[in-house]
Design goal:
Layout lengths: L4 E5 L6 H12 L2 E4 H14 L7 H9 L3 E4 L8 E4 L2 E2 L7 H10 L3 H12 L7 E5 L2 H5 L5 E6 L2 H14 L6 H17 L12 E4 L5 H15 L8
Parallel strand pairs: 1-6, 1-7, 2-6, 7-8
Antiparallel strand pairs: 3-4, 4-5
Helix pairs in contact: 1-9, 2-4, 3-5, 4-8, 7-8
The chain binds cytidine-5'-monophosphate.
The site of cytidine-5'-monophosphate (C5P) has 14 residues, from helix 2, helix 4 and helix 8.
Length: 231
């Protein structure tokens, strides 16, 4: 018996990361932040001076990442140690997000990260957060959720998130970055960002995070009626 997976996909700024970390804590399941892996590859490649066009070398970086994740409180970024060095904050800025979406379009990078992502599937279960969790990495996931929100709303949320972390950004620039990253993620040939045919799609544009948590919990309870946790 393999462990159950809840795949949660969608672009950034939909509340996906926050909702996944709450769900993982509520269920006491493992959490995969797959976006962090692409960010780490981009960061590691940059620090090693690897040319962004050198797909073979980037694939090698992806396959051999010496990375350790440290679970964090719900709503906080997962801790990341690269070769023992804490890079939790270094990978969270917009430049690293943009660099991540560039390396993420390379087939050898995606292939290099596949086994590692699948190895997160362990009992009692996994919440998998990403872009292709339900379509490619865990196509047999028991539950697939796809979150959307308007670009304006996502830019506002990212702005607040980054500001709260002390990272200075310009809202208009952020909207331009989000639009560019969405286009790259949805239009790439390999594992494009799109809902799986059997995903439940939620538009979070006008929904606050507490209501979204309730909605997600109701959806999980419908799918797994044996879950007896309080809320
Ligand atoms: O979610 P996050 O913003 O950390 O992801 C950074 C980038 O990594 C995304 O813009 C996307 O290009 C890439 N990514 C991906 N597949 C995933 C998760 C993230 O291509 N499963």
């Amino acid at each position: 018996m393999t462990a159950p997976v809840i795949a949660v996909d969608g672009p950034s700024g939909t509340g996906k990361g926050t909702l996944c970390s709450y769900l993982a804590q509520w269920l006491d399941w493992h959490l995969l932040d797959s976006g962090a892996l692409y960010r780490i590859v981009a960061y590691a490649a940059q620090t090693q001076g690897i040319d962004p066009d050198n797909e073979a070398a980037l694939g090698e970086v992806a396959r051999n990442l010496d990375v350790e994740f440290i679970p964090s409180e719900p709503g906080r970024d997962v801790g990341v140690l690269l070769a023992g060095r804490d890079i939790t904050q270094s990978i969270r800025n917009e430049d690293c997000g943009r660099a991540a979406s560039i390396v993420a379009a390379l087939p050898q990078v995606r292939a290099g990260l596949l086994d590692r992502q699948q190895s997160f599937r362990r009992p009692p279960g996994l919440i998998a957060d990403g872009r292709d969790m339900g379509t490619v990495v865990f196509p047999d996931a028991e539950l697939k959720i796809f979150l959307t929100a308007s670009p304006d709303e996502r830019a506002k949320r990212r702005y607040k998130q980054l500001k709260d972390k002390g990272i200075g950004v310009n809202l208009r620039q952020l909207l331009a970055d989000i639009t560019e990253r969405d286009a790259r993620d949805t239009e790439r040939d390999i594992s494009p960002l799109r809902p799986a045919g059997d995903a439940i799609v939620f538009d979070t544009t006008d929904v606050n995070i507490d209501t979204m948590v309730e909605k997600m919990i109701r959806t999980v309870r419908d799918k797994f009626p044996n879950i007896t946790r309080d809320r």
